[in-house]
Design a protein that fits this description.
- The chain folds into 5 domains: 52 residues; 72 residues; 28 residues, no CATH class; 70 residues, DNA polymerase, domain 1; 60 residues.
- By secondary structure, the protein is mainly alpha-helical.
- The strands form 2 sheets. The chain has a 3-stranded antiparallel sheet with strand order 1-3-2, with no helix packed on it. It has a two-stranded parallel sheet with strand order 4-5.
- Helices cover 42% and strands 6% of the residues.
- The protein is built from 11 helices and 5 strands.
Length: 296
């Protein structure tokens, strides 16, 4: 439109045209500025991501009971893994042995193997239990035998648990570590893992659950039998259990705990196992595995 044509419009029309033109200019300017901001934000985010990805992994000694997320990410873990690690600890878990970091489900076997050499458990968190071996004082001899240890001039005989000579069925719900170590192929480490897993679960309802115990070999299953008549499974009310109680159970993940509590808060208590199925939080296989531990 030529300027002379513009003058033919009435005064009110000219004002309307100028007003609409100004609005159009302002809108175009806003769109341009918004696009440049998005491009800048994307560039910053891309730069941040590349910085995280290219950051070198620097390992150092750490206590898993006190380590922070920044250090965990510096050790090569992803932000999600570091977040889950700290949430597992906030739920009440205590790492009493270096190998206990393997309970954090987001850590792969490679992550655990890489971190283990640097784990140092503080005195306040270390396991307090009887030594692996006991010693019986005996008179000194001229020469030490193969099964003795000489300390300060005195000899101490090492006592190992006597292994079963024939197949003996052991109930994993009632056996202590001393009895478990009498099974050929079961040492102090596996026996301790069996008892710890039993406590976390609330009891074993099937010997097949022992295959979930770390380092447990399938060949050992023939030595175990669950006494169903004396079995006492520690069940908990899924509608009233706390976040810590739910998240500490081996069959419930952090995400499932979060989603379950949110569902109950929004829709009310679950009436039965079918109501739990309808939430879609657990697969059918997970529900079957978890059902013996639930009350409604």
């Amino acid at each position: 439109m030529a300027f002379r044509d513009f003058l033919y419009y009435s005064k009110s029309d000219r004002r309307s045209i100028v007003f609409l033109s100004l609005i159009a200019v302002i809108l175009v300017g806003v769109l341009i500025l918004k696009g440049s901001d998005n491009d800048g934000s994307a560039a910053v985010e891309a730069g941040a991501d590349s910085t995280v990805q290219s950051a070198p992994v620097v390992m150092s000694e750490f206590d898993p009971n006190t380590v922070d997320s920044v250090s965990l990410i510096g050790f090569g873990l992803s932000p999600k893994q570091a977040h889950t690690f700290l949430n597992y600890r906030r739920a009440g878990a205590v790492f009493r042995t270096p190998e206990a970091i393997g309970r954090v489900y987001t850590l792969t076997d490679e992550d655990v193997s890489r971190l283990l050499p640097y784990v140092r458990i503080g005195a306040d968190y270390s396991r307090k239990e009887t030594p692996k071996h006991t010693y019986e004082r005996k008179p000194a001899k001229a020469s030490a035998a193969a099964d003795t240890v000489r300390t300060n001039g005195a000899e101490w005989k090492r006592n190992y648990p006597e292994k079963f000579k024939r197949l003996t069925k052991v109930d994993p719900n009632t056996a202590d570590t001393a009895l478990l170590q009498r099974i050929p192929g079961v040492g102090s480490w596996i026996s301790r893992n069996i008892v710890e897993q039993r406590n976390r679960l609330g009891g074993y309802y099937s010997v097949g659950q022992l295959l979930e115990v770390k380092y447990f070999s399938p060949e050992l299953l023939e030595w175990f039998e669950v006494d169903t008549m004396a079995m006492r499974i520690e069940a908990f009310d899924i509608n009233t259990a706390s976040f810590q109680r739910l998240n500490s159970h081996p069959y419930i993940s952090y995400e499932q705990t979060r989603d379950l509590l949110r569902y109950i808060r929004l829709y009310g208590k679950l009436a039965d196992i079918d109501a739990l199925r309808r939430t879609g939080i657990f697969t059918e296989e997970e529900i079957v595995r978890l059902q013996p531990y639930l009350k409604f």
